[in-house]
Write a structure and sequence with these properties.
The complex is a heterodimer. By secondary structure, chain A is mainly alpha-helical. Chain A is 60% helix and 6% strand. The relative contact order of chain A is 0.06. Chain B is of the alpha+beta class. The chains are: A mainly alpha, B alpha+beta.
Chain lengths: 247, 182
């Protein structure tokens, strides 16, 4: 039997069966289960041949269909009425499940349309001012379950985002030690001696810059441009008179 | 002062925004019985359906709020870049439909109809606030029961669960009727 695979994604074995019924133009109400089973088995085999992972649900259904079919193939023992009963039941049960599933599948189409329409519609958030005024008063007769609490928390966070929705960009001013050294030199020119480390970091707004300043000062000490003393938890500097360049 | 009840209600709903106002709150505000207020609101809802209005009165679970008409979105999009609208997968829709029609319902019952496991899907829907737990069944193992939320009603423009489209019935009588029409 030739079999063409289409790329539709099936929600499950029942979805697949309904697809096969439609494709083979079978009547759901007078279902030829044998044709359906053959088609179903062929489909699952093709999936396997194509090395597609077959979800366990498809295999479970495959197993019960195979069992049903093999029982039918066995020579019928007229004295055993149970077997016939079983066949009838299995077939009826399958049809019942297919019909039940088909109902819900159909109704989702209507729901989908409603959903799409609603998702095009937008409401505006409640006025913040009103909310602020109302909050205290309403707390007294608050009746809510845990879901309301989760929802309230979500809304709270959303509101918080709306309030503080100014975009904040944190940029670090990249300043090399050499650049800072040059800056310090021009700062020092205007400072009466001795000057403290605090004087040198007066223009530093970030810790990062303080550290760069400190490293620059260390460098200036190394090349003996500055001399220092420590007094009362403060570092004091003096120019050495030696500019560190003419060596 | 010649203001109407309609104007007052409209004003309240405008201020309440997406929080919506309940019928009880609105009737309290205008000091009228809720049946009267409901009639007025229903009339108002009809007025807003007019194509000349850019928003409409949405009702679900006795809660009223204004939402823009679907056609407005396209125009908003010209000014603001709107993120893509939320989508729901076919399996999500099926699961929601089963819960909505059969609630309160256990996971096993849903799985029986769909023929596939729904554990993850239920967790997802609960995270999206469309489904919630509704106690436990008295049957063996006391499985968790699930029901849909108000969020679901809003999302599918349903006033209440009674508004759900009828499940198609495939009874013999209807079939023959259908065949007659063919």
């Amino acid at each position: 039997m030739s079999f063409t695979v289409n790329s539709t994604v099936f929600e499950g074995p029942l979805d697949l069966m309904l697809h096969l019924i439609k494709e083979k133009k079978l009547d759901l109400f007078a279902l030829d289960v044998d044709v359906l089973i053959d088609q179903y088995i062929a489909f699952v085999h093709t999936m396997e041949k194509m090395h597609l992972e077959v979800a366990s649900e498809f295999l479970v259904e495959l197993a019960s269909l195979t069992e049903y079919k093999s029982r039918k193939c066995l020579p019928r023992d007229e004295s055993n009425l149970d077997a016939e009963e079983y066949q009838k039941d299995t077939r009826e049960e399958l049809v019942r499940r297919l019909i039940e599933y088909q109902k819900f599948k159909e109704v989702t189409e209507t729901l989908q349309i409603r959903f799409e329409e609603r998702s095009m519609q937008i409401a505006k958030p409640i006025d913040r001012e009103v909310l602020r005024m109302a909050e205290e008063e309403n707390l007294n007769f608050l009746q809510a379950d845990s879901y309301d609490l989760i929802k309230a928390m979500k809304r709270c966070l959303q509101r918080f985002h709306t309030v503080s929705n100014t975009e904040v960009r944190i940029t670090q001013r990249e300043l090399s030690i050499d650049q800072r050294t040059n800056q310090l030199r021009s700062i020092i020119e205007h400072l009466p001696e001795p000057f403290s480390f605090s004087d040198l970091t007066a223009d530093c707004l970030e810790v990062h810059l303080v550290i760069v300043t400190f490293l620059a000062v260390l460098d200036m000490l190394r090349i003996q441009e500055l001399i220092f003393t420590i007094e009362d938890d403060e570092i004091w500097f003096r120019r050495s008179g030696y500019d560190g360049y003419d060596d | 002062m010649a203001m109407t009840i309609e104007a007052v209600l409209e004003g309240i709903l405008f201020v309440f925004g997406d929080e919506g106002a309940s019928l009880a709150q609105l009737s309290d505000a205008v000091n009228l019985p809720s049946e009267t207020v409901k009639e007025i609101l229903d009339d108002m809802a009809n007025t807003y359906k007019d194509e000349k209005r850019g928003f409409e009165l949405s009702v679900f679970n006795n809660s009223y709020k204004f939402i823009s008409k679907p056609f407005v979105r396209e125009y908003i999009q010209r000014i603001l870049t709107l993120s893509k609208t939320r989508t729901l997968s076919q399996s999500a829709l099926e699961t929601l439909a089963i819960i909505a029609y059969k609630q309160p319902v256990t996971r096993i019952e849903i799985e029986e109809i769909r023929g596939v496991g729904c554990d993850m899907m239920l967790k997802k829907l609960m995270a999206q606030d469309l489904v919630r737990e509704a106690g436990r069944a008295e049957s063996a193992g006391r499985p968790i029961l699930y029901e849909i939320t108000n969020e679901f009603l809003d999302l599918f423009k349903l006033i209440s669960l009674d508004e759900l489209p009828h499940l198609p019935q495939y009874e013999e009588t209807q079939m023959s009727e259908q065949q007659l029409f063919e």
